[in-house]
Every structure is written in structure tokens, then in C-alpha cells.
Fold this protein.
Amino acid sequence: MSKRDYYEVLGVNKNTSASEIKKAYRKAAVEHHPDKNPDDPSAEERFKEVSEAYEILSDENKRSTYDQYGHSAFSGPGRSRGGDPFDIFKEVFGGGGGGGGIFEELFGNSRRRGRTSNNRGSDLRYDLQITLEDAAIGTVKELELAKPITCKKCNGSGSSSGSGTSSCNTCDGHGQVISSRGFFQVQQACPDCGGTGQIIKDPCTECRGEGRSEELTRIKLKVPAGIAHGSRIRSSGNGEAGLRGGPSGDLYVVIHIREHDIFEREDNDLYCEVPVPFTIVALGGELEVPTLEGKASIKIPPGTQNSTVFRMKNRGVQFLNSSQRGDLHVQLQVEIPIKLNKDQKDLLNQFANSIGTKNSPIRESFFEKAKRFFK
């Protein structure tokens, strides 16, 4: 079956602005959302269709490609978009996990009978500190956090027998009740079943009918090479377990990169200052410098000046999802010796007298420009 034109799906034309496309998606997404059409099995397919259309037309590059090549540009092996229509919906409307936020505003938190999406566990946040080395080359970290997990005794059902549930008579299994307040009718979670639509006849003694209990959990997380400070990694399904068998929320790990003793990072390049004896910059020679992989050496030409920067290619941070790397920029800081003895001072004075100003081009140029101030 051929796909409909994305512009037709959203009811817009090719000249429609990005803001109008977003407005059209919001209207269509609400109209076709499965929770708004509990008795229409085709609503979910229409909802996926408008979400797919918005995913392409809301992105300037994808929209340009679609205008040029149509649906064929996004078909074929390895070229699927894989966007979750419900994630797109939450992103546009600003809704969070756990069945709250925008869902309550638009649909009164209503759900089809038998669905467990309103029992979804909450999303969690975890702040993870890593080193610059970890961020540059990638690492695997084991996280430890206490969170509600599926009850092992009742396997998440909340019932001791596993089948001791019945439809709530108060809300007729919908999980919602409507009450009148003056001229208004307000839809809210059923007070008897807590919005689940089910009553537990024989609550589990371990979780007291919730279907989940708190436990210390260890989760392995892969941190990709090249990740930036403040980035978020989503670990799907590792949030709080859902209520009475509902789906788990997600875990969002926020990355914090500790300040390094030597290196400063700018995008994928690294910067550092390295002290160098004045004899080496005067005479030339090899200088050992630090890198993320250990020490390396750079060749210093004779007469190199203070603050000269040397670039070491591919010695920086790896680009995210790429094998390429940034560069390492080494700035020389000429080290001036202190606590000279008499012989050393005499030798330096002899050296200064013998060299004069002809071998000091920077100093000579400066005083040439500044001579009017010394009249």
C-alpha cells in the first residue's frame, strides 16, 4: 500500500512555514491520538502516520530531501527513521512520562479499558560524574540506585494469587470518574482503584498490592566516546517499574565531566600549557608533552618564542559516533630559572652582552614603535 503525501497527511502545502506545520501536527495528533479514540482501532495507525509526517517535515534537512526525492529517500535497508510517535507527541506538547502532564490536559488522563499506559512508572534522573579521559575514549559505568522494581513475589500483578483482580465498580474499569462542579464536569482518577481500573481482592503481602517494591539496583551504562558535558543518555525501561504490571519508565543519565588538571576541552580539541627551559627554545630540541594516551614529544625549532602553540593532530577527543578525533594544542610557557648563583649570573651577563639587540627581533621591533614615548 502506497503512503500518502506527508503534506496531505498534515493538511498543509509545500510553502507552509515550520510554525504552521507544528500547529497542524498538534491539531492532527490530538484528533487521532489512541487515547482520544478508545473505540477506534484504526486511530493508532492514523496517529503514527501524522507523527511520521511531522518528523520529516519539521526537520529542515529531511524536508528538503523529501521535497526532492519523496518517500523513496527514507525507505530501504538501514534508512528507517525509527521515531516513536508517542515520544514525538510528548516532545511537541511538553508532556512527561508516567501518564501525566499533557495527557491529563487533553484527555483527562483517560485510557482504554485493559491498557496499562496510565500505570507507567516514572522516569528517573541520575547525575554521573566522569573523567575527561572517559569522555574522550568512552567507557562503561555501573550505576547503583534504589528504585521501585517489579515485585518478585507477585510478579507485578499486585495479587497474592496472581489473578485476584476485578474490574472497579466505581469507574467501571476505566480508572476515571466524572464529577460535577457547578457548570463544569471534571474527570479525575477513581478514588477507589487509584486510576488503574482494577481492584485487588487479595493484595500481595510483599508490595501491598502495588506490584512493585523498592530495591537497590545496579545498571551498566555505556558512555560513548566524544560525549559532551551536560549530555543526557536515555536508558530505556530502567526507570521506576510500572504500577501493577504497567510499563517501566526510562532512566535519564546526565553527564558531568570533571575538570582536568592539565587539559582544557573546547568541542573536540584539547588545550594545555607546557613549561619549557629557555635553553631548549633558544637552541632547539625535543620536548616531552602529555597526551591522553601518555607522553609524546614535539620538536622545538631554535629561536622559538614564548607562548608559541604547537598542534598535534588527532590527539584530542574522539567525535561522537565517529572514529575521527580532534587535535591537541600545546602552548609553550618559557621557564625562567630562579636562585642563580654568582657564576651563573656572570655567564648570563656575558651572554647578554655578547648577543646585543640584533638577535632580539621582537624587542627591537617593539622599541622601534615605542621610541616616540622615550623622547
The chain is about 25% helix and 25% strand. Residues 1-94 form a domain with the Helix Hairpins fold (CATH 1.10.287.110).
